[in-house]
Amino acid sequence: MTSSHQTPTGPWWQGLNRYQITVFIFASLGWLFDTMDQQIFTMSRSITMRELVPDGDLNLQNKYGGYATTCFILGWATGGLIFGVLGDVWGRAKTMALTIFTYALFTGLSALSTSWVDFSVFRFLAGLGVGGEFAVGVALIAEVMPDRSRAGALGSLQALSALGNISAAVIIGYKEELGGWRNLYWVGAAPALLAALVIFKLKEPQKWVEWREKVKADPHAAKHPGRLTTLLRHPRWRRNALVGLALAVAGVFGLWGVGFWSGELIDSTLPTMPAATRDAIQKIIAAPTPAEQAQQVSQLDANQTRSYQNLYKYTMASGTTFDPAKVKTAALDEAQKAKMKRLVDRALDPKEEPKLKRKAFILQQVGGFMGILLMSYVAGRFGRRVALAVAMVGGYAGATFVFYTFQEKSQITYLWLLLGVCTLMPFGCYAIYFPELFPTSLRATGVSFCYNVGRYITAFGPILLPQLAIQLHGKQEMSGFRMAALIMCSAYFIGLIALYWAPETRGQPLPEEEAAA
Predict the structure, then answer these.
(1) pTM above 0.85, yes or no
(2) What domains are defined for the chain?
């Protein structure tokens, strides 16, 4: 093994043996399919809610979509803690196989949903496996790789997750050919086949095997393997766990509470409506008197009325209370007409919407891939704390800029690329940093604690954004959705504050119990 004080030369994969490469491939595939599952959900969420909440307006559908997302994140957090402990006690490889099978099974069952309630339950159960896979996978790679290759391998593992996200975008593009959103979830179940391969192909890392043998020979060496209480009782591991937790809260809240609502940002800025609906609303706007406006509104069908109500709500003057019963007879003033005309002129045809969202999402994930690799380089070259500071500042600045400035579909090309770079940068740091904070007996437990207790704290972000948007809507000229997103971006400052107590781990071997004495 390369000494921790040597300067690495050549690419990180140079000199790896066949088994180390096999471990990297299997762990990366597990995480790739994991992220594909996540993004099939986030990208189809608005489409799914249109069917499962058919009578709701955009804000109500976002509200129930937020509930489903929170259930998914709560499952993610719960599964991460359970499987993280199991990974330390039972073994990394076997536990990873079980997590993959779990998320694949309940992803497939999500296709059977008949309401937002049972859909949310299936998302919670799928989240159990999603949350466990990452903690066990990074512990496995960290222990199998030599010191010089560890940061590069873990950063690449996280970066390759972007391929899973892009795969989801490609699959979404064939939604109609597959027969609708339900069949997307059956496709997401395919990774169950990988679980069997993991069971038969991978063995437990030597570090973990040696530690288990030591425990068998001397039970006092580690009395409570994988216990959260052991993690939190030890001063050094407790400090590291709390620092990692604060860092994770910042990045997860920024990504799931703001960054992954980029599809809904498109919905709120570029409404989707057929040509007939667009023409009908343009006639209402052009009507010279309130009586003629009311007459045109009365001729709208149910779907057109819903589109008009959404436009009316998004163009009301600040301080105005929305009353659905009065929309049909309420007169449009000139300022509201101008706002509504701009929205209608930018409206997307229903056939154009999925293509534009797929393009946007792919750009966001390409940006994420670049951001994660960039942070892997910065962490290896300048240190983990510097990389994390850059990632937190970048996450805040990028998300704020995108949600404040987006107006035209032509902006998607560069804004969504920027959003991906900035909101995924912290995760490139996490994959490298978190396994370096804990010893072998607590590595999977510690990583899962940072990520998944953080997810418990941030799980209500997806509920908070639409709820806050509803409360803020009409208070200012800016839409409530945008104002809520800008407020929630401040979560990144939690990570910046936590860096004051964060240890630097660059150039050091993985810690062991003896090192803390």
Answers:
(1) no
(2) 18-269+349-509 (1.20.1250.20), 275-345 (no CATH)
